[in-house]
């Protein structure tokens, strides 16, 4: 990150504090958490004590009141310690932001203190078994019954499910299409809410991923977030920021892999010379560093656009997510190759980074969907 010179003094201080936390609280345990499939909720609460539980939540509501430009710095730095935990914190913060941005005063007072302190963790429930990329085709229903709604359906691939206390659920209150969708806040103890088995995954093992099953979950009407029919718009606005968070996590994980490669090549010798002195390997490192710097610049440009309310922000966020997650995975994979056989051993932590970063090209909208968004923006005026 030293190659980027546009950070303010406050951002440099934020990066320093976050990096200290990542290296002291995350990095030493990342491999063990991955192997044991351990979700360190206590460490998340320590992160929240630094203000990382409500990064974008306004200060009057208990948050840190930071910008998206600050946020991508936070999540990139956290991911140098563990991309899985940083990725979950990005999702948790997306949930907190949705309640702060679209909730009424009573909803903010009820849920934001717990989210900002991470005493209550948050999960985002949009994807379903039959509605992944085509999110507007979701089938979970919320039937109005007087002053209550009854929610029925299944959500798939939900990070934090079972451990989280607060779930933002997108459900259909009207007809087909995006305008028939509304957003609701469901609590873990609500009758009728249950969870599937913890999924066995390639990566992101330090956080649980489960189905969220809603079997007639009856909640008061004041649990609706925003107006009826506004849910899809709310969900898409949230994903703009969520995509930047995941893009930043890819940068951090890949940067860690690159840094480890430099150290490894400096320590290893072959044919009487350090591997780091081989020009062919230096050129590989140069490519990796150049691509990461370019991806970082795009992520920060998109974050700035989102902060400014730029009309093209959604398109830039899609570009940044697609480019940074592709580059991040590619850099991590090349770092494994530079480690030779050691890269394939779990104790070195490189293969874990590769596995963790692979899913970033799928979640928060697949990279194919990111291309759809970008292409739509390019061609919209010609329709």
Please provide a written account of the structure.
- By secondary structure, this protein is an alpha+beta fold.
- Helix content is 51%, strand content 15%.
- The protein has 11 helices and 10 strands.
- The chain has helices spanning 9-26, 30-36, 41-49, 68-79, 83-102, 105-117, 231-267, 279-308, 313-338, 350-358, 367-379; strands spanning 122-125, 141-145, 148-159, 166-172, 181-187, 193-195, 209-220, 224-225, 269-270, 273-274.
- α7 packs antiparallel against α10.
What is the beta-strand fraction? 5-15%
| Helical percentage | 40-55%
Run of helices and strands: HHHHHHEEEEEEEEHEEHHHH
- Count up the helices: 11
Supply Rg. 21 Å
Q: Kindly report the average pLDDT value.
A: 96
Strand order of the biggest β-sheet: 1-4-5-8
Distance N terminus to C terminus?
41 Å
